[in-house]
């Protein structure tokens, strides 16, 4: 437990300003803890007088889990455009809510977001908590954590889902710590039991095993989920409730300021959104053969991906990798060229709508997952395909 020694405290209030969570306030000239204290103990380092000490043993706090209900999705947006993973999570949230006979809520924070609300409702939100303010226009950890954790503490959702994107990976652990619960990061599967236990499946030990994790004693149950793993669904004509949430600015919000934004150059591989992917493996035999795949992908208006085999050979950069430790994709058409079909590769592409595999080995495991198998040498088959399609 954190204790302030008033006999030593000089009232400088360094600790109040240092706390990122508004966990300390001034009462009668001395600092006292608020219910926002996360117990992170960071304030101790800011006190030059040794007036902040830890006493007693750390106690394990359990939550009253029956008082939590509802499935929440923390929406991710940039300039008001909602990230696909949010829509995918809403699809999964609807499924979980059905089992639990509860409701789905989305939380969206930013500025000038009103167009986004309909999209969230259309994709499965029964309720949208929206916080619109100029200082929230761009993602910054401190204000986003504060606004969302206040909402979680107030409304007590049973499950909170975020995308395993760069924003989600920054936000989720801080939220979990702030509301004192666990987090399963980078999930590839989610199921819920009728009594509310969320089974969170994720690759563990470098992808060598799939672990299913539960959070038995704390709520909410929090997970981040990889983009492309879940399926989104549009439910036209849906109606939902909109709850406006007022967010107040705090001095700590400006610890990080956004000075300039550099947008990703167009033309870079965006495999997660691609409708058609032509993917190459070690069976391409040489880096120059990737130009055949580029040509085929261009004709089909698709993107080029790769197996780890091709990346290990140094033929294409890591950003092309599809699979358990690469990207998860769900295109309408996936063409696997010279890829054996190792389980780690399948984990990233097996949910594609239609899979064509080209391999010279008729017993290659990829053929068990493929909808269409072409047995033969890619150096013959791909030029033939190109000439017929162009
Ligand atoms: P290979 O297994 O060498 O297969 C090459 C295939 O090409 C063979 O089937 C062969 O018959 C065929 N071939 C050869 N020449 C020709 C030709 N001329 N014409 C037609 N066919 C030809 N892998 C991933 O892809 N993604 C991941 O995210 C990933 N994560 C991993 C995580 C862990 C923890 C581990 C242990 C492994 C991971 N792997 C991953 C590696 C995975 O196990 C395989 O080693 C890898 O997918 C093999 O790549 P490949 O199929 O290109 O190569």
What does this structure look like?
- By secondary structure, this protein is an alpha/beta fold.
- Helices cover 26% and strands 24% of the residues.
- The chain has eleven helices and 21 strands.
- The strands form six sheets. Strands 11-15-10-5-8-9-16 form a seven-stranded parallel sheet, sandwiched between helices. Strands 18-17-19-20-21 form a five-stranded parallel sheet.
- Helix 5 crosses helix 6.
- The N and C termini lie far apart (71 Å).
- The mean pLDDT is 92.
Core attributes:
alpha/beta; 390 residues; binds flavin-adenine dinucleotide; 11 helices
Summary, kept brief:
By secondary structure, the chain is an alpha/beta fold. The chain has helices at residues 14-18, 42-46, 84-100, 114-122, 141-155, 166-178, 290-299, 308-312, 343-349, 366-369, 378-389; strands at residues 2-4, 24-27, 30-33, 52-54, 71-74, 77-78, 81-82, 104-110, 127-132, 159-163, 183-187, 189-192, 198-204, 209-213, 221-225, 241-244, 276-280, 303-306, 333-337, 354-359, 372-375.
